[in-house]
Amino acid sequence: MAKRSPIPIPLIWLLFAWSQCRFGEAIWLSLPTSGTKCVSEEIQNNIVVLADYYVIAEDHTAHESTISIKVTSPYGNNLHHKDNVTHGQFAFTTSEAGNYLACFWLDGAHKGADVSVSLDWRTGIAAKDWESVAKKEKIEGVELELKKLEGAVEAIHENLIYLKSREAEMRMVSERTNARVALFSLFSLGVCFTASVLQVVYLKHFFRKKKLI
């Protein structure tokens, strides 16, 4: 009878770490009676974003309370806008790197009601349809979990590259700002020195004219 080879311990730890990772999680937002409630997330370019949302009324009358939602890109482009809804979803692939903003507010007819919104916002690896991947590639079990781990590692690697590029951009901005501050300081010092010299020359000329020296 053939013995089944044991699963390597590092693989077990990787699977455990994957099971503990949360790449997308639903949040609840309590909407103010007036004004808007917004959430944002900084996302890099070419990332898939999926989100589901629905209204939760404190008095269990969710079907009577409607909201409006607007999702915008870092440059203000409108990605999703709905009025008078109780639930919905949106999906897009980012074309700009930066903060993506989702804002919710109560419709005029329901202002004053205690309403919350459940928002399930998923990006990148969390937005991937793993059931379709498993069916297409005919994998399951440990192979599927390893495929998810591979995707997670790629996502982390891409995020590190994005953070590195942002750090380089910030460093360049900081260096340019420091150079401009140093130049302005030298210019200010030159102006002060010139003003002092002119003041001394003028006073010297004035005193000689008055025959004080």
> For the terminal residues, how far apart are their CA atoms?
118 Å
Instruction: Please state roughly what percent of the residues sit in beta strands, choosing from under 5%, 5-15%, 15-25%, 25-35%, 35-45% or over 45%.
Output: 25-35%
Give the number of DSSP strands. Answer: 8
Helix content, binned percent? 40-55%
* Global structural class: alpha+beta
Low-pLDDT ranges: 1-7, 14-22
Order of neighbouring strands in the sheet with most strands: 1-8-3-6
**Helix segment tally:** 3
Sequence of secondary-structure elements: HEEEEEEEEHH
Rg estimate, integer Å:
30 Å
Average of pLDDT = 80
The gross shape turns out to be elongated
> Describe the biggest sheet?
4 strands, antiparallel
Task: Summarize this entry quickly.
With 213 residues, the protein is of the alpha+beta class. The protein has 3 helices and 8 strands.
